[in-house]
Design brief:
22-stranded antiparallel beta barrel, TonB-dep_OMP_SusC/RagA, mainly beta, TonB-dep_rcpt-like, transmembrane, Immunoglobulin-like, 15 helices, globular, Ferric Hydroxamate Uptake Protein, Chain A, domain 1, Phage tail protein beta-alpha-beta fold, 1083 residues
Length: 1083
């Protein structure tokens, strides 16, 4: 019967065979006809063949995972047969004419140490058919004499063997160090890591997702010791507040007087997205699932490519590029539960608070007068009765919640070799732990890559939006100061306007504002298009260029209800405010680059880049503020009575332009001796009109010691020494001084409307330039089980741009000048060791340690910033601008503690004498807020698709000024006694002669100056990330659901924090701990 069908069907015109279906097949010692029947059942196809021509009883063994049916069947039937498709689901197996005799070959593939390598591809070069090795590294393949077997595996050098009748072919693959050394993506040029001298660190999107699923910034800080996210003790985990970031310390003075409203944090790194500059907000809101890799450029050799913007480091983000092939759909769902972290609040309960008030003298009349004392006793007794009834209100739980957020993302990619695409959409419903707060984001992208001949065109379109809401519960500090012996509601279950009006003024119920229609929300929209073109002129020359167009708009509306208690003392026509602020930013950027690459005499590798770039930014901001609303009015400005008194709408505009030319040379001799040279000339409108251009350059030298001919170590696999130095700059300050700006006054006389100077330009203001040097060592040992990267660096910014105070008669607050310099010295290390690395059993256990040490110092200020120092003293700031000292130094008068006899503080003067009198001139450095060393301990285990990662951050050394001690243990004024305080105000303050106490007399309500008593040594351990994951591609249930792969991750971030300092954290908005889950499926 089969022969008849065969003869009938052979008459039809047959076409080329093409399978797209993939199956998993594992058969041991089965006949060929049974194997074909199994494939037929799994793939839902039929095979027709002649029993006389095909050895259907031949015993075979196969083991394929997620493999094309064509590859599986071709391996089963052997090279002397071929498949021919008749129509969908029907295939012929026919002999190949004049086919050479086929043989079955077995063998095993191992690495250099003899460890089996599973998953090695064994390919017949002539037929492009092949198999993969099993978990024991073994394989079996049908091959004819004269055919070539190619053995290939990621991270190892491929080997070829011409078959000449051998029954067994065993292969030992050699590790390919150059394959393991990835390409460094700098955002402008690409460099082979093996021959690059810059200090960089690249992490993949998978590594980022292994830490957490919040945003790339939160994950990146765990993976690199130089990338520090500073804790914001005021705003905590507020999703609408951007983080403060430093890479290798600071290069500028952080002062708002330096920045216009469009400027960025002067110590924040530059962010690059797919080759073009972007801002921190875009990176924070970026969908993590789209990220392919992030590279941090740290030293001059790597950052000088960005010249005047790179002194704080550069963070280069590359998104996933479209891949050719069938359309593949990917869905990712992220779910996060955030819990407010209130463990650092050490507040009194109701009985403790009332007792504290009694000891502090709140319930004792200041003179011997029975009438007022009787009234105070009555009030006290009523509150004591409430305490004894069990009233102990926990106010901290009122404004917070367990926040649940979710993000959903779907993406599709595919295409041909000529045209590839990637399109996606994501949405995140993000809640904050303060009730009513949150940030919802959405984004879409379309990526197209067209390749024809020597031309490659790529276009990336991004559209993003957000809606941010602040909590209508007010500041968290309002609840941290509310007295626990007050009830939240009255006897009718209603929220009252005031908690108490019996003594020392009205006490507002912080919950009252939740009844009002106050609101604060911001909406934003942005569209960005990046176009890139690459033309391969010859095999050695390439021309490439790009254009970016970007537009952003934001609008903030903030309404404070006229019924808010803050307007109690305001007139009827001033109750309630409405603020509207709109910003619009438009920018374009264009660049062109010529690339030359060549290898001479197989040893001299040269890459030369010549590049030019232009950019223009146009920023506009418009704001209005209306005041006076009727009770119950909606936040509609037309309901207001007027604009704010003596005020008018605000409007700001800025046009910023820059251009540059850049040249770079990368040279390597025999991959042993390395040289990187960069030169860039920048022009900008950000500085003085007489200082429009500034040069920046760098040089880097490297030595691959392990490449030396006499270096034959079986222990050391990689040993690279690098030295770099050069100049970079900083333009994050904004356009601070290019042009003097005048504004119209509010009065008119016979000469007309007057004008006033609002910004005084400094035409000779120089650029901030930072000299950066770096000495680096990369090492890998024991077959790369141990690897480490060590860098010793120094940065010197000279001159700084500093706002110098002016006389009040000028009408200006400050004037930007070049004065002083800032020097940073530091060391960083990244070390990983694979305790177990069993490829055969798919088992790996790796431990790691990262760490950084940074010290900073000012110099060359002289007494030019004396006015700034005096302003800091008056405002209670701990910062001083003095030569030889650090921006992180804590300045205060040394304290010898509390005198047991009097309860007063004893100060140590500079002359060594002691005194009860505080003198600002006695202040010295009493601590430094930067840790002596900071980094992360990591532990990662991978076993057969399961992963477990634990990352613990440590901070050792350094000091902290404890504001809780300063403001809630002492420094509690006459009216502050009514607020809840830290428990140490009751238990650790002096009460009577002879007491040995840490803090002053409990009845002392006078203002307390800053002294060293409030500075404490700090050591911290933080559970930054704990992750459990699972990924599979070959499970039956995965295929049954139509998926190609499935991944699940569970995270705990910031789950614990142990500190030697007990201080309140998250003053206006609390910090949070999070538990998250993520699922990812590809179809």
């Amino acid at each position: 019967m089969r022969r008849s069908i065969y003869l009938f069907i052979i008459l039809f015109n047959v076409g080329a065979f093409a399978f797209s279906q993939k199956i998993t097949l594992n058969l041991k010692e089965v006949p060929l006809h049974e194997a074909l029947r199994t494939v037929s059942d799994k793939a839902n196809v039929d095979f027709f063949y002649s029993d006389n021509e095909l050895d259907i009883d031949k015993i075979i063994n196969v083991d394929f995972v997620d493999t094309d049916v064509e590859v599986i069947v071709s391996s089963i039937i052997g090279a002397q047969y071929k498949l021919e498709k008749q129509y969908d689901g029907l295939f012929l197996i026919v002999p190949v004419k004049n086919a050479a005799q086929a043989f079955s070959v077995i063998g095993a593939v191992t690495d250099e140490t003899g460890q089996p390598l599973p998953g090695v591809t064994v390919l017949i070069e002539e037929t492009k058919q092949g198999v993969s090795t099993d978990f024991d590294g073994k394989y079996r393949v049908i091959v004819s004499k004269g055919q070539t077997l190619v053995f290939s595996y990621v991270g190892f050098k491929s080997q070829t063997v011409v078959f000449d009748g051998q029954k067994e072919i065993n292969i030992s693959l050699e590790e390919d160090i150059s394959a393991l050394e990835e390409v460094i993506v700098t955002g402008i040029v690409e460099r082979k890591k093996e021959t690059y001298t810059g200090a960089v660190n690249t992490v993949t999107g998978e590594e980022l997702k292994a830490i957490g699923n919040v945003n790339v910034i939160e994950s990146l800080k765990t993976l690199d010791p130089s990338f520090i996210v500073l804790e914001n003790n005021l705003q905590g985990s507020n999703p609408n507040v951007l983080p403060n970031i430093e890479v290798r310390g600071q290069t500028s003075i952080s002062n708002e007087d330096l920045r216009d409203e469009f400027g960025a944090d002067p110590n924040s790194p530059l962010f690059i997205l797919d080759g073009f500059e972007t801002n921190l907000r875009t990176i924070v809101d970026l969908d993590m699932n789209r990220v392919a890799s992030i590279t941090i450029l740290k030293d001059a050799a790597s950052t000088a490519l960005y010249g005047s913007k790179a002194a704080n480091g550069v963070v280069v983000v590359e998104t996933i590029k479209p891949k050719e092939g069938q359309i593949q759909l990917t869905y990712t769902g992220d779910f996060t539960v955030e819990i407010p972290d209130l463990t650092d609040y050490n507040l009194m309960n109701s009985s403790e608070k009332l007792e504290y008030e009694r000891l502090a003298g709140m319930w004792t009349y200041y003179i011997n007068d029975m009438g007022p004392q009787i009234r105070l006793d009555s009030i006290y007794n009523s509150k004591l009765a409430e305490v004894r009834r069990g009233v102990d209100t926990y106010w901290l739980s009122e404004p917070v919640r367990t926040a649940v957020s979710q993000r959903h993302a779907i993406a599709g990619s595919g295409g041909t070799e000529a045209l590839r695409f990637n399109a996606g959409f994501n949405f995140r419903d993000g809640q904050g732990v303060m009730k009513g707060s949150g940030r919802d984001t959405w984004g879409g992208n379309v990526d197209l890559i067209y390749r024809r001949g020597k031309v490659n065109i790529a276009n990336r379109l991004y559209v993003n939006g957000f809606e941010a809401k602040e909590s209508n519960y007010g500041s968290f500090s309002d609840y941290a100061t509310a007295n626990p012996y007050y009830r939240k509601y009255d006897e009718f279950g209603e929220i009252t306007r005031y908690l108490d009006d019996s003594v020392r003024g009205l006490l507002v119920n912080p919950l009252y504002q939740t009844l009002l229609n106050s609101s604060d929300q911001t909406v934003g929209f942005s569209i960005l298009n990046n176009l890139g073109i690459i033309v391969d002129l010859t095999s050695k020359f390439r021309l490439q260029g790009g254009v970016q167009i970007r537009k952003e708009t934001t609008e903030r509306e903030a309404f404070v209800s006229p019924e808010d208690p803050i307007f109690d003392d305001s007139s009827f026509f001033e109750k309630g405010t409405y603020t509207n602020t709109q910003t619009e930013n438009f920018s374009y950027m264009a660049n062109a680059m010529l690339v030359y690459n060549n290898v001479f005499a197989d040893k001299h590798s040269v890459t030369v880049n010549l590049r030019t770039e232009i950019e223009e930014q146009n920023n506009e901001s418009y704001g209005t503020r209306a005041v006076g609303f009727p009770a119950g009015a909606n936040p509609n400005p037309s309901f207001s009575f007027s604009y704010q008194t003596d005020a008018k709408p605000s409007y700001s505009t800025r046009k910023y332009r820059r251009n540059n030319v850049m040249g770079s040379v990368n040279y390597a001799f025999d991959n042993r001796y390395l040289l990187d040279l960069n030169y860039r000339l920048d022009g900008s409108t950000a500085f003085g009109s007489n200082e429009k251009y500034s040069p920046f350059w760098s040089a880097g030298f490297g030595w691959n010691i392990h490449k030396e001919r006499g270096f034959n170590s079986n222990v050391i696999n990689l040993l690279r020494l690098k030295q770099t130095f050069g100049y970079t700059g900083n333009q994050n300050l904004g356009s601070v001084a290019s042009t003097s700006v005048y504004s119209y006054g509010n009065t008119v006389n016979i000469l007309g409307v007057g004008t006033q100077l609002t910004t005084f330009a400094n035409a000779n203001l120089e650029w901030q330039r930072t000299f950066d040097s770096n000495l680096g060592l990369d090492i890998a040992m024991f077959n790369r089980r141990l690897d480490g990267r060590f860098n010793l660096f120094k940065k010197n910014t000279d001159p700084l741009v500093v706002p110098v105070s002016l006389a009040s008669s000028t009408g200006l607050v400050s004037y930007p000048l070049n004065v002083g310099r800032l020097e940073v010295n530091g060391f960083e290390a990244i070390v990983n060791y694979k305790i177990i690395n069993n490829i055969r059993k798919d088992f790996m256990w790796r431990v790691g340690l990262t760490g950084s040490v940074i010290r900073m110092e000012y110099d060359d200020f002289g007494n030019k910033l004396q006015n700034l120092d005096e302003e800091n003293i008056d405002s209670g700031s701990l910062v001083r601008y003095r030569d030889g000292y650090s921006p992180n130094d804590i300045w205060a008068v040394p304290s010898l503690g509390i005198d047991p006899a009097t309860g007063q503080e004893v100060f140590l003067k500079k002359n060594g004498q002691t005194s009860f009198d505080y003198d600002y001139s006695d202040e010295v450095v009493v601590g430094n807020t930067r840790p002596d060393v900071e980094g992360v301990f990591s532990n990662f285990v991978s076993l057969k698709g399961f992963t477990l990662g634990v990352n613990i951050r440590y901070r050792f050394g350094g000091e902290q000024f404890n504001n809780a001690l300063f403001n809630k243990v002492e420094n509690i004024g006459y009216f502050g006694v009514v607020n809840n305080q830290d428990r140490r105000a009751l238990y650790d303050r002096w009460q009577q002669p002879g007491d040995v106490a840490k803090f002053k007399d409990i009845a002392d309500t006078d203002a307390v100056p800053i002294s060293s008593r409030f500075v404490q040594d700090e050591n911290v351990l933080i559970g930054e990330s704990i992750n459990l994951g699972y990924r599979t591609t070959d499970k039956k249930w995965v295929k049954a659901l139509g998926m190609n792969s499935f991944r699940f991750n569970a995270y705990m971030n910031n789950i614990f924090r142990a500190s030697s300092v007990l201080a309140e954290r998250g003053i206006d908005y609390p910090f949070a701990r999070s538990v998250s889950f993520s699922i990812n499926a590809t179809f």
